């Protein structure tokens, strides 16, 4: 078997394990805190993601020179960091050239196994909250304070809005 094929299989296995771990983490938090409201559950998932994102960004940009602008950091996040997470780049990045960046993922891997029925709309945000925390932690590691909001337009499409806090 060629080296490229081995690397591709290794990447696919790693992605599958990440997806299963993510599903189990959400399921565990939901079942262990049944009386907890949706907001507290989302906050816990984002906090878990924050730590993961900060550590992953530390590794991802170990050999990368410092970013001059926030736009440079966001481009790195969309092109290279996202590949470490999901084996693909962000589909589209928009900015107002000030302090808001919008990241579009048309096939968000953590939502591909879920239905697009409106009856599950509350549950869909549980699966995106961890990634929102990862983004916040990753940007924090780069010295960028931010607030991340997300919108699930039609699963598996997801839009992340990054507002840079001054």
TrEMBL record:
<dbReference type="GO" id="GO:0005801">
    <property type="term" value="C:cis-Golgi network"/>
</dbReference>
<comment type="similarity">
    <text>Belongs to the TRAPP small subunits family. BET3 subfamily.</text>
</comment>
<dbReference type="GO" id="GO:0005802">
    <property type="term" value="C:trans-Golgi network"/>
</dbReference>
<dbReference type="Pfam" id="PF04051">
    <property type="entry name" value="TRAPP"/>
</dbReference>
<dbReference type="InterPro" id="IPR037992">
    <property type="entry name" value="TRAPPC6/Trs33"/>
</dbReference>
<protein>
    <recommendedName>
        <fullName>Trafficking protein particle complex subunit</fullName>
    </recommendedName>
</protein>
<dbReference type="InterPro" id="IPR007194">
    <property type="entry name" value="TRAPP_component"/>
</dbReference>
<dbReference type="GO" id="GO:0006888">
    <property type="term" value="P:endoplasmic reticulum to Golgi vesicle-mediated transport"/>
</dbReference>
<dbReference type="InterPro" id="IPR024096">
    <property type="entry name" value="NO_sig/Golgi_transp_ligand-bd"/>
</dbReference>
<dbReference type="GO" id="GO:0030008">
    <property type="term" value="C:TRAPP complex"/>
</dbReference>
